[in-house]
Every structure is written in structure tokens, then in C-alpha cells.
Specification:
The protein has 300 residues and is α/β, with parallel strands linked by helices. The chain folds into 2 domains: 134 residues, Rossmann fold (3-Layer(aba) Sandwich), CATH 3.40.50.1370; 159 residues, Aspartate/ornithine carbamoyltransferase (Rossmann fold, 3-Layer(aba) Sandwich). Helix content is 46%, strand content 14%. It has 12 helices and 9 strands. Helix 3 packs across helix 4. The longest helix has 22 residues. The chain is globular, with a radius of gyration of 19 Å. The protein starts with a helix and ends with a helix.
Length: 300
Amino acid sequence: MLDVEKDLVGLLELSANMKNRTKAGEPYEPLRGKSLAMIFEKASTRTRVSFEVGMTQLGGHALFLSPDDLQVGRGETISDTARVLSRYVDGILYRAYKHENMKELARHATVPVINGLDDREHPCQVATDLFTIQERKGNPKGLKLAYVGDGNNVCNSLLLGAAILGLHATAGVPKGYEPDSTLVAAAKRIAKESEVDVHIVHDPFEAVKNADVVYTDVWVSMGMEDERAARETLFLPYQVNEKLVSAAKPDAVVMHCLPAHRGLEITDDVMDGPQSIVFDQAENRLHVQKAILARFLAGV
């Protein structure tokens, strides 16, 4: 087993433990007396609520900080912000526009920094996705995950996460909208060691053929609003609808990291249908975030 696989498997096991404790109403407060600074440059529902509620349930305290709440919004450097916050809190969650800013904050912080999303990756989301797949399908090794849509940050992290955990992964994306080539190469290297395959194709039906999981995301990410009209036309053949889902395995599950633009990347009948596990996936953000917090802020 690769070290990175061992780490991910351990995190997913801890996530299951967190969920069981929550469902049983069992108090568990390893973060009592600890504080988390949450810097949000981008709006959020699930990331913000799951981390804030997670910190509370684990006995800690979360501080929500928008750029308007921080001097970084008025010219203070990210490095200085990292140094100062590290003197006050036990960890920093950062939801950033730019991956370079994420690296800058992490480079200068002396406390754990959690990537809550940037323009390159969305690792907390994908940890939840893999946990949800494992919860629904059992041992995920050898399953096929098909991602359909924009080769964005979620797609990048999904390819890496699937390769680490031993799932075959295929991304079906339009030409010119492929996932990050460096991360695809990394995913393929990991996949080879895990004895699975990673493929990038341009036909959505080819992508979902024999898939156990069909996954999609928004076509227009925050910051790309000026491309909306062009993207909505270009991506229409990649819509996750009944016809596309029927090309996957009969027992395939459908996932979406939310928020969803119903009628665009996914239809109502699929998102609300029997194969959808979208809202189980959303709920699991809480349990996985708690595992992440406990692991990195308390060494659980």
C-alpha cells in the first residue's frame, strides 16, 4: 500500500468513526480549547457550514473571516497574515481564488493549513466523495468513476483521489477544457502503482460506459461568469440526464458536489432520482471535515 493511500484510507476510517459518533449522539471533543481561522475569498454553503459546525461539535471554535474582515483585503501580504494568525489560532482553513495564494499562506503559517478550495484543487470535497462512494459501494478498488463536464479543480482532485484509492477514472470533457495536465500526469503515475487506469476523453458516453459512479459539477465556476453563455452552449452534450446515466452500469450512482444548476449540468429527474446520492454526499461533508480537523489539529 502506498503511503499516501494509507493516509487516505486512515482518514476515511476516521470519517466513518465521526459519523457513527454523530449519529449516536456521542460527545467527542478532542478540539476543546482550539480555534480555527476560516478565510473565505469565495462564497460557500457546504464548506463553511460543515467546518464551522464540525469545530463546534468537536469542542472547538471557528472564526469566519472574509477579505473585508482582514487587512489582507487592504494590502497586507498573505505571508504576514499567515504569520500573525499562526500566533492566535491552532489551524487555518483557506478558500482561495488562486492556488499560488494557498501555497503562500501555507509556506508562512506555522499551524496546519487546510485547503478549502482553490482554482487548482478541492481536496476536502474529494475526500468526502471517496468516503461516500465507499459507504455506498463498499470496497472501492477496481470500481470505475466517470466525471463529465468541465475539467476544473474538482475534476483534478477526483482523478488524483481515485488513483490513490484504486478506482479507474475517466473524465469526459470538451476539447480545450481538459483537467490540469500536470495533475493528470501525476494521477496516471499513481494509478499505475495502484494498477488502475486514468483516461481523458471527449465523448461523454464513452466516459460513462461501464461506470459505477457518474459525477458532474457546474459548468461555470465562480470567477468565470463572463464565459457563461459560451460554456452553457458548449457543454450541453455533457449534461447528466437519463440518457447519459443509462449508458453507465444499471446500479451506478450519480454524484454532484453542489451547488447544482438544475437543467444545465444535471436534470431534475436524475438529481432527484433513485440513483442520486447527491444529498448523502453533501451530508458527509460534515463527517469528513470533522475527521480532517481532528487529524490535523489534534493528531487523532
